[in-house]
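not sure who needs this but someone in the group chat was asking about Nodulation protein NfeD from Candidatus Viridilinea halotolerans so here u go. i didnt clean anything up, its just raw.
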Amino acid sequence: MCYIPRQWSRGFLVALGLLWLLLSVATTAPQAVAQPRSPIYLLDLEGVLSRYSIGVVQRALRDAETSGAEVLILRLGVDGAVLEDTRRLADLLVAAEVPVVVYVAPGGTRSGAAGVWLLTAAHIAAMAPNTSFGLTTPLVQFGPELSAASVDLLRNEVQTLLEERNRARGRSTDWITAAVYEGAVLNNEQASALNPSAVEIVARDLAELLTLLEGRVVTLDDGTSQTLRTLGRSAEPLQLTLWEWLLLTLATPTVAFMLLVMAGIAVYAEFLSPTIGALAGLGFVLLILAMIGLIALPVRWLAVLGVVIAFGLVAADIFLPSHGLVTLVGLVILVVSAMTMFDGTQAPGVAVALWAVLVVSGSIAAFAAIGAYLAFRSRQSPIATGQEGLLGRMAEVRKRLEPEGMVFVEGALWRAVSEDGEVEVGDYVRITGVYELRLTVRRLAAPPEPPA
């Protein structure tokens, strides 16, 4: 039997304990070091920036702030913007408690006034190649009700605000005066060529943007600084809720216009062929949806009234002998009303798509042309029903005309009077008139040929 000294036994136990301790530390150390990384959120802004867009961005900012997001990226691909709402949206970005990057993308985007306000408000401004921001007209426009002094005062206020925000971010302010008073459009190359640059980053895609954001220091509105860690990471898209998607879709000018047109068609169809109110109810629902979209946009309500009047004229032309003139007037009013439905000074780039106007006006013109053709054709064709339909038809004498007697035509016996003397039974005559259920007839010069 082998004897082990007690000192060795104690040493072995101590060594075994130390080994277990080292293994425990090695196993738990990575878990202690690896902390959950803050998420990177991505929100796409498309279509028209309106009051409904503000609600979407507010929700995104709230989610980002609650989760302690590394950064919130707003990918800007809009077609137009309501200036009042865009300015409110810019104020939200300035006061955000998380870093916000505004990225004008994809290539080909002309972000217009939305690009000016949101790129200026963002903590970091970025653009994709072949994109631009700004307008060819003055950024700030007002109606004739304001005096020149008031307009200059308001424009100076906007210029000062944009310059202060760009200067605080270390960006160029050289382009702002021209943009506010005359109009200026800068593409990504022009913006990055200024000294200092009007934007910090030009990135081909989202992956390159995240790479270029790595290590940049952002100063928030409360004065705190944050260093971005985005290298090798991916962004988590923020999905729209069904309600947000519906509101943004309804606030699209072309969609609102088409809903208004379809509402008019449904009510008109109910008028032509009553369906116990089903089509009228559908028209009312479509009208409500159109109104939900229109109230978010700077609408000229006189133009909306013009659309209603245009449909009224087209409907009235069915009952008027105008040969399509009333329909033509209605089409002109419809086109003019559709193209001027939204105030471009309050919402640059917001307008009904030309293709939608052409489709609607073309369809109505085709419908009116087909209706006029059918009406003309029916007027030219002989009357085939009623007493007037007997004119010109042949009849067989069943009771001798002396000159009054009886003739057989269209399966019935009629009293008849001959215009040219007596006519014998079995002869054929032609009907020349109908007077109070009595026919006037004329003898045929030759008997009718028997049917083949």
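also Residues 370 and 376 are 10 Å apart (CA to CA). if thats useful
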